[in-house]
Design goal:
This protein has 391 residues and is an alpha+beta fold. It is 29% helix and 35% strand. The chain is rod-shaped, with a radius of gyration of 45 Å.
């Protein structure tokens, strides 16, 4: 006859087993795989970066227009042309100015001829007066004749001086006409490249009236000198100094350009955005290789090196929690242990550790990237190769 177990005992056993299963489920701690970083030393750099995108600019950019309005008679350039300093780029109609200049030159020639004539007569009159004075000493002429000759010599000399003054006026008039003619020309103030032309042959151009900006006739750029301007947060600005090394990165290029230096720090705070006050910083690109392929207008980001140090212990910035502790892997227990550390200089890649960690210890590499992993969590290294990365 089969053994019959009382129903009450079966129910009690079922309840106990269910409770044990539930307790085991609730208290079970899974062993998770995590990426570990082996603590070591290495260089750590303290850098600051711009808060908003910067831009590449030309050191010299001129918006050129003629000093007076008029019809464009000659347009000697096209967009993209390389020009030399002093080259005439645009000329408005100026035949009247040229004619007045030619007239002034002819008048100067006539005035100089009168100078030669008047001064030659003055020399002759002076010689005659001296000859008569000699004859007077020999009582061969009267004093009246000598006085008249002296007066004529003085008058001739005055006529000579007047002619010279007239010649100087004519010479000055040439300068005036040359200046008027110069106002009809647009010349390149330096070697550069024509970026834009807002004038057409036969069209009419005018200078901008005061307070009313208009398109310039010619936009000239000097591409031999470029710099980057970018804003940094006001909190980061105090330690920045002129001459500090800078790395420049641009979306249009893969490589960074790290031969740049800080050349200017704005002496005021920009408050165009009330919640993000910034300081404008200019970075000079001095290496010819860094200038290759650059054009004004490219977007650019800057990283200013404030300090560089060979740290005895450094960790990835992602391993630091709340700025003060890391999760250290206990090799014996197979668990993560929370440990506070003292940090030194840092950037978005590495943090210098002054105390709390020793080289060779392993820590969780990415505290923020691992979901719901904290102290006392049982873990195992995901990849021993990755564990030693960064040595």
């Amino acid at each position: 006859m089969p053994l019959r177990i009382p129903r009450k005992i079966l129910i009690t056993a079922f309840v106990l087993l269910s409770g044990l299963a539930l307790y085991a489920y609730l208290t079970f701690t899974p062993i998770l795989e995590v990426s570990l970083y082996t603590v070591s030393g290495g260089p750590v750099e303290n850098r600051v970066a711009n808060t908003r995108v910067g831009a590449v600019k030309a050191c010299r950019r001129s918006l050129l227009a003629p000093a007076i309005g008029g019809e464009v008679a000659r347009l000697n350039i096209r967009e993209g042309d390389a020009v030399k300093a002093g080259q005439v780029l645009l000329e408005i109609w100026n035949e009247d100015s040229k004619a007045r200049l030619e007239l002034a030159r002819i008048q100067l020639e006539a005035a100089e001829a009168r100078v030669r004539e008047a001064c030659s007569m003055a020399k002759g009159a002076l010689r005659e007066a001296k000859r008569l004075e000699k004859l007077l000493s020999e009582h061969l002429v009267s004093e009246e004749v000598v006085d008249r000759a002296g007066t004529e010599a003085e008058t001739s000399q005055a006529s000579c001086e007047a002619a010279r003054s007239t010649a100087r006026v004519s010479a000055a008039q040439i300068g005036v006409e040359e200046s008027n003619l110069e106002r009809t020309l647009v010349k390149a103030p330096y070697d550069g490249v024509i970026a834009e032309i807002n004038a057409e042959l036969g069209g009419y151009v005018t200078p901008s009236p005061p307070g009313i900006p208009t398109l310039p006739a010619i936009d000239l750029l000097d591409l031999s000198c470029l710099y980057v301007t970018a804003p940094i947060d006001e909190v980061d600005a105090p330690p920045v100094r002129l001459g500090m090394p800078v790395c420049v990165s641009m979306d249009a290029f893969t490589e960074k350009r790290c031969n740049a230096t800080v050349r200017r720090i704005a002496p005021y705070i920009l408050d165009t955005e009330k919640q993000a006050r910034t300081v404008e910083v200019e970075v000079a690109l001095e290496d010819p290789e860094d200038l290759r392929g650059l054009l004004p207008g490219y977007s650019a980001d800057i990283e200013i090196l404030l300090e560089s140090r060979e740290a005895r212990v450094r960790i990835p910035a992602t391993a630091l929690n709340e700025g003060k502790y890391v999760l250290v892997y206990d090799e014996t227990a197979g668990r993560l242990i929370q440990r506070e550390i003292t940090t030194g200089i840092a950037n978005w890649e590495y943090v210098e550790v002054l105390s709390g960690l020793q080289p060779g210890e392993r820590i969780m590499a990415d505290a923020a990237g691992e979901v719901e992993i904290g102290a006392d969590q049982r873990v195992r290294p995901a990849d021993e190769g990755a564990a030693t990365e960064g040595k």
